[in-house]
Specification:
This protein is α+β, with helices and mostly antiparallel strands and about 100 residues long. It folds into two domains: about 5-60, no CATH class; about 65-100, no CATH class. It is about 35% helix and about 20% strand. It is flat, with a radius of gyration of 21 Å. It starts with a helix and ends in a 10-residue tail after the last helix.
């Protein structure tokens, strides 16, 4: 595993991880690399608050992406939603007493 990949992985864990028991964040000092072989790694994330251990396994793959081409394809494949559809959806959500943010949980 390339050092840069491991560094990005740990930075991502520090940014996004929350302990499943107490919802606390962690830092790089509480992440232990248990095993690395090729592009695979196993890590132990230890909660600094409640000492819960979370085992994390990953496989890093390198992909050659053309970001500009991806953005262009994404932009051309977006379906347009009419004002009528938005108004109808809004009425349906209000009728069911559902908040839009509930749809993304």
């Amino acid at each position: 595993m390339r050092f840069e990949w491991l560094k990005l992985l740990i930075e991502g864990i520090v940014t996004n991880y929350k302990c499943p028991e107490c919802n606390s964040k962690t830092d790089a000092n509480h992440i232990e690399v248990l095993w690395i072989a090729g592009n695979n790694a196993n890590l132990d994330i230890i909660c600094p608050k409640c000492n819960t251990h979370s085992l994390f396994g990953t496989q890093m793959l390198q992909m050659n992406l053309n970001i500009d081409k991806f953005k262009k394809n994404l932009a051309t494949n977006i379906q347009k939603i009419s004002d009528k559809e938005i108004t109808s959806l809004n009425k349906d959500l209000k009728k069911e007493k559902i908040n839009v943010s509930d749809l993304f949980d």
